[in-house]
Every structure is written in structure tokens, then in C-alpha cells.
Amino acid sequence: MDWPTRPRRPKMMPMPSHDPPNWSRRRVLASLVGVGAVAPFLAGDRTRAGETIVLRYTAHIPNSHGLYGRVFLPWEELLTERTSGRIVWEHYVDRLLHGALDGFKAIESGITDYTHGYATYQPGSFHLTHGLQLPFLFSTPAIASLVSEELYPEYLKDEYERMGVYLAHCDATTAYDIISKTPIRTPEDIRGLKVRSTGGLMADIVREMGAIPVVMAAAETYTAFQRGIIDVVALGGPDMAAYRLYETGTHYLRIGLTHTVLQYCLNPRTFDGLPADLRETLYNVFRFRGQIAHQNYYGGTALETAITQLVEAGIEITEPTTDERQAWVDVVRPLEERFIEENEARGLPAEAFVREARERAAVYEGWTDQQLWDHVDRNPVQGIIEF
Fold it and tell me: 25-175+258-304+339-378 in CATH: which number?
């Protein structure tokens, strides 16, 4: 298998130069009159080369959220540039058309052309895909999103497209670190403590460490932490700062337990109905989306700014030593072993999947954000969608 060599020329992703549109529910309803919420497009509407094509982007987040203003809008500007304005997006955010759990249904019913389709929200429908959240698999969101897309055509495509969608791209969250009220350096320090967690594999990681997972939304964490309902929060640095966890916590361990890979999906009827040149351009520009999410929101300077904010608030930041980090790796290794054993028993190539994920991640270790951007530009992953 030919894997890439290091790229050279750096590039930076600009922030949007315009204010985000503010769709009201009245405007949403007006925009759907005459076409129907379940009709993805009018017959013949998207087959004439050279004409402007309007696509729908839907999300549960508000337009004040960083993933909208700092990620989607810069990505949209890049697409506008590369298609000379031939693709135009209508934005329906803040749950205007569907909620956080309904991305796959919204695609199936034709309500949207492009939205989130998180495997973590449909855990029973996926197997190998959950392996992207195994502990200590990736070092940065940029590497996690890129390697996830590289693995997708061979290992994950069949189980994802069973949901009736195409994969648009993968984003990856900031690595989950630990903020606590007492110092934590080793797994022994966290045993028996109540740890805020997401469900699924993240909760399994917490159990493997000997702690007690308490599953709750990030927005509920501040009060639970303050009241002692939880002792520890496992979350990314930017979210720790955004939710003001520094007002209760005092110690922050930069351990990087795991990343959550977030999938976004496309309406197959919409994509297949585009002119051939726009299908290729849209596909290639989607390859940048995970890099933009990393640079502008989940990592890069955004993460550095969050860490600075925590330090200025008086949080003691601990970087584990090599031996301390290895102790964390060792304590959760049985989780990976069980993942491989259980999925091999299903007839799935789990061992090869995990091995290749680690090998591919190692190729990109130490690359700068700009080098990764340039690599994606020159070598977009092929085979995510066949066209």
C-alpha cells in the first residue's frame, strides 16, 4: 500500500469575512413552500452545467456556535471559490428542520442535503466505526479526521452506507483530557472517582481505569462538577474553558485519552444528481473540512488559547512523563483487545483495522497543520464516494 511522504508547502485556512445568515422559522417555512420539505430537488434542477445549484445544510447547533461560524462558513467560502459560486448553501441551523439525533432520518426523508450523521448516536448500527474512538489511537484532531477518511473505503464504508447516506467527511474532537479538584497523575489516582463521560466507548474507557462513568451532556457538567455529583471531567480543553470548569476544578492532566470522530453525511440523490465536475469538486473540498475544524475549533490556536485561559484562571496544568503516560496506555489496553476479539468474532477485520489506523497515524505524527493541509490539497482520499 502506497502511503504519502511528507509534503512541503504550507497553507492557512482563512476565517469567514461575512456575518452568518440568521434564518427564522418563518423564513424556513417560506423557503420550503412549493417544493415540499421531503423533496431534495426539483426534477432536472441540478443537472445543467454552469447554473447555480442551491443545497441545504442543516444542523442542531445555533449560528453562534463555533462549529458554524468558525468551521462551516470558512469551508463554505473555500467551496464557493473552487466552484466559482456554482454551489450555494441554504443554512438551517439551531434545530430548525431536525434535531441532533435525526441526521440520518433527515437525509432519508429528503429534508436535507448535508448534515451530521454521527455513529455515536446510532451505536447499535456500527461496529468497526466505533474503533475510531479507541484510547490513544490518534494524537490530534487533524490526524484523526484524515486517517479516519483513509480507513473508510476499505473498512467502514459498507456499515456507514447501510444508513442510506454517503459519508461527506469526518471531523474529530479535541483529545479528552482530565480536569479535577485534586491532583491526578496516574490511573491509581482516578480509581473510584465519578467521571463525567459520554456514553459508549468513552464510558468503557472510564470503567477500564477503575473509575465510575457518569454520562451527561457537556452543558450539564458545570453544575454537576460544582455540586460534587462528579469528581472529574473528561473533556477537551476548549470545552473546559467554554463551560468555565476552571471555576470548580483546580488540576488539569493533559493525557489525551481519546478523540471522538464525528461523521457528516450527504444525500445520495442530491450528490448523484450534480453535474460531474461539481461532484468531483465538492468531494475534494469536503476533504478539507476536518482540517478546518481542527485549525479553527478543535485544535491549533483554538486549543492553545483555551489552555492559556485555564492557566490564567489558576488551573495547574500537568504534562505526564513518558512513564506516567505509559501507565495510562497499559491500563486501558484490555479495552482494545476486547474490541478486536469481539469484532473478529463477527467476521470483521478488526485486528487489521486497528493496526492500520496506528500505522497511518504514525506517518503523520509531527506534521504541522499546514503540511497536513497541503497534503489533503494534493492527495485527496479516494473511494469515499464512487462517482
Answer: 3.40.190.170
Residues 378 and 373: their CA atoms lie apart, in Å, by: 9
pLDDT in tens, 61-111: 888 888 899 999 999 999 999 999 999 999 999 989 998 889 999 999 999
- For the chain, the structural domain boundaries read 25-175+258-304+339-378
pLDDT per residue as tens digits for the range 306-349: 999 999 999 999 999 999 999 999 999 999 999 999 999 999 99
C-alpha cell of 351? 485486528
What residues pair up with 109 in beta bridges, in sequence order?
A: none
Is residue 133 within 8 Å of residue 144, measured between CB atoms?
no
Report the pLDDT value the prediction gives residue 302, as an integer from 0 to 100. 83
Asked if 190 and 260 count as a contact pair (C-beta separation under 8 A), the reply is: no
Hey, what's the cell of 5?
A: 511522504
User: Nearest to residue 146, comparing CAs of 387, 370, 373, 366?
Assistant: 373
Per-residue pLDDT for 226 more than 90? yes
Q: Is 158 helix (H, G, I), strand (E, B) or coil?
A: helix
**Burial readout 19-54 (b: 16 or more C-beta within 10 A, e: otherwise):** ebeebeeeeeeeebeeeebeebbeeeebeeeeeebe
What number is the average pLDDT over the span 139-147? 97
d(CA 45, CA 104): 24
Radius of gyration of the chain (CA): 21
Residues 172, 259 contacting (CB under 8 angstroms): yes
Other CB atoms within 10 A of residue 241 CB: 22
